[in-house]
Amino acid sequence: MNDNGASEKWASLIDDYGGLVYAIVLNKLNRCGTKEDIEDCVSDIFVEVYRSLPGYDPEKGDMKVFVSSIAKRRAIDAFRRLSYRMSVTDHIDDEQIPPIHSPEDTAEEAEKRILRKKLWETVKALGEPDSTIILYQYFYNMRSKEIAKRLSMSTAAVMKRSLRARAKIREMLEKE
């Protein structure tokens, strides 16, 4: 194939699956990544798709599934990397960081941070496997079936524990 045919095929691939890839990445990174992080991840995904094309067999699966599985794996990796970076910065003593002055009122943002921290501490206080189930459900957007497989539990058990854990979280937060 000539160079022009390869670039047409590449442009077609981006046109056909760019929205899908962006939606997958946005779904995974919208809570912890910046717009630049999301765009970088999308670019990395298409580079990996391009590199993986020689190994793609259309008889084994649809191109959409091929691209979306690469996108999901890369987005999860990026989420873990960004979450780790955020958790590392959580351990820095607040006195070491100079205050950032903003022209906007930051009281609401500070209150949200306090609530998030309290929620995180409450989830950790649930104990295992409940805290892991909640973490997988709400931070990694995993379904009960996937969680059950990872934790060697039945899907019904994961769903029931999740329901009880959420009730317990609600109860613990209402006490405070």
Describe the structure.
By secondary structure, the chain is mainly alpha-helical. The protein folds into two domains: 3-90, Orthogonal Bundle (Rna Polymerase Sigma Factor, Chain: A), CATH 1.10.1740; 106-175, Orthogonal Bundle (Arc Repressor Mutant, subunit A), CATH 1.10.10.10. Helices cover 74% and strands 0% of the residues. It has helices at 3-29, 35-52, 63-90, 107-125, 130-138, 144-151, 155-175. The chain is flat. The chain starts with a helix and ends with a helix.
What's the number of structural domains? Answer: 2
Number of discrete helical segments: 7
CATH architecture of the largest domain: Orthogonal Bundle
* Global shape: flat
Strand content: under 5%
CATH superfamily name of the largest domain?
A: RNA polymerase sigma factor, region 2, helix turn helix motif
Q: Please count the beta strands (DSSP E, at least 2 residues each).
A: 0
Tell me about the biggest sheet?
none
Determine the mean pLDDT. Answer: 79
Class by alpha and beta content: mainly alpha
Highest-level CATH class of the largest domain: Mainly Alpha
Helix content: over 70%
C-alpha Rg (nearest Å): 21 Å
Q: Which segments are poorly predicted (pLDDT under 50) over 5 or more consecutive residues?
A: none
The helix/strand order is HHHHHHH
CATH topology of the largest domain: Rna Polymerase Sigma Factor, Chain: A
Q: In whole angstroms, how far apart are the ends?
A: 67 Å
